[in-house]
Design goal:
With about 190 residues, this protein is α/β, with parallel strands linked by helices. It has 6 helices and 8 strands. Its EC number is 3.-.-.-.
Length: about 190
Amino acid sequence: MALRPEKTALILIDVQSAFVERERAGERRNNPGALDNMVRLLEAFRARGLAVFHVRHASTEAHSLLRPERPGFQPIEAVRERAGEPVFVKNVNSAFIGTGLEEGLRRDDARTLVLAGITTNHCVETTARMAGNLGFDTRLVEDACYTFDRIGHGGQRETAEAIHAMTLSNLDGEFATIETTNSVLAALNASAAA
């Protein structure tokens, strides 16, 4: 993986307390180290002064944990934005619809987007698909996002691991390149050494 850091932005998607609440309520997820990896990416981008964009979901559904007036809307503290890091609030799955995200990225001349967040098969996937369609070099960090078990279309239980893997398969090579936290950090280090 090669990166031009000055043309690269990290986008953290929906890293919000509602998902911690879901885990505490007994829902099962994959990638137990995903939040730690999000923090590693965030720290690396911040240390190099690179662009960081935060996205939050403000649900319009009456009983959603992600409604803006509920505690679940708040970011997970470990990845809370700092002064100067833009926060875009969306009401649908894509971070590009109804927000100024694309304009912000174009203004910063970002060409490569490094995506991480929650959940892999919903807002992360939708944002990755749109980023690819908008012409961005989209890199989805597989170990810095996660999802939950769910009941599938036919009534069978689908594991978070299977859902996550299928999402990556659907995106890879068409909408995004699948990366790991280590591959992104290695690329940042290599570009600094060049």
